[in-house]
Amino acid sequence: MRILNLKSRLVLLLIPCFATSQIINTGELFVASNTPVSFVNAFDNKSKAVLINDGELFLYSHINNEGLISFSSGNSKGITRLRGVSGHQNISGNIPIELNNVEFNNNSNGGNAATFQVSNYLSISGMADFKEGIIDDDSFGGLVIFENGSGCVNVSDKSFVNGEVMKNGNNDFTFPVGDELKYHSVGISALKMNTDAFSGKYSQKDAGILYPFKNKTSNILVVNDKEYWTVKKMGSTSDLILTLSWDEAVTPASIIESPSEIRIVRWDSAKNSWLDEGGVVNKDDKTISSPVSVSGNVIFTTAKVKKTDSFVVYNAVSPNKDGLNDYLRIEGLDGTENELEIYDNRGIKVFRTREYGSNENVFNGFANVQNVFLKNERLPDGTYFYILSVTKDNFTTKQVGYLYLSQ
Fold this sequence. Notes:
By secondary structure, the chain is an all-beta fold. The protein has 2 domains: 2-305; 312-405, Immunoglobulin-like (Sandwich), CATH 2.60.40. Helices cover 1% and strands 49% of the residues. It is built from 1 helix and 40 strands. Strands 13, 16, 19, 22, 23, 26, 27, 28, 29, 30, 31, 32 and 33 form a 13-stranded mixed beta sheet that branches. A 10-stranded mixed beta sheet has the order 1-3-6-9-12-15-18-21-24-25, with no helix packed on it. A 6-stranded parallel beta sheet has the order 5-8-11-14-17-20, with no helix packed on it. β39 (382-392) and β40 form a beta hairpin. It comes from Flavobacterium lipolyticum. Residues 1-21 form the signal peptide.
């Protein structure tokens, strides 16, 4: 066992590791920028001990933290590379571990079990590179947290988080979550507030055991009984654009055989029923996206819905008063009870009205909901989502799609 007890501030340039069990830090270790350092053996950061990594830190075994593991404010280039070579790596302790950039790269379990067993809070502020190795925080009581502005790359069936992932801040984010050796993401749009916090989790299980499929609106034909996603909002309700994915190896064929009929559905605990949230399908990416509201824990999955009367939406809007596409034209609404909602690409509602098209009640590029934009303010050019809800014979159907606003 090797004990490092460096009481004074010291730039750590190199630590050769010849120990046979673990390295214990009871002092202060500082890894300078552009400096590579390797810990071959387990690293135990004791109470009141400090490890600041602004360089390139290689960890080949377990890491436990009871003190401070972090990086200098303003440093964006430091990286911690988790590269186990002789089995899984425990990430443990009672004090959260703060990393800037991180690389997960451990295939010592052959891809058949978790190589990173997380029982602590692991906070990531930069970019996480999922090269190889499954990160399991579900079985061990830990949590992987991505801070505002952070992200991840190279997520795949070989490397993802099995369990819950938290995201702080307002940038758009795709949760690197999976289960049963399958990566199956859930994405959220950029949000209104940088203080927002969400978490996402994927479960390759039958949601109907807890949330009965017999309880659903009549337009839902088949609910996915192989998988579901849990999205949690910490704090008040937020609107966002939710994106789910499908995979032929997991998602039932009955759901994806007709992609145009795929929808996002949500379990509504108050109504004790599955509800249709609509969705826009991207066949190339195998994703479906729709504006949703999230408060507390919400269960989502995919479903197949009945074909309904389609309404013709001319989704190009250019309110320049040239007589062409000056407003959003929708054909087929005569005599129907309807509601139109429009959301920006962050999922923020900017327009809402009932009885669309009657008495010049149309969308012509101006907000009528005071939110980020002032009421009656001209909206910026860009792509927006619309949700058209039509009620006929006491039954409501949803049509979700894009519209394009330009001068």
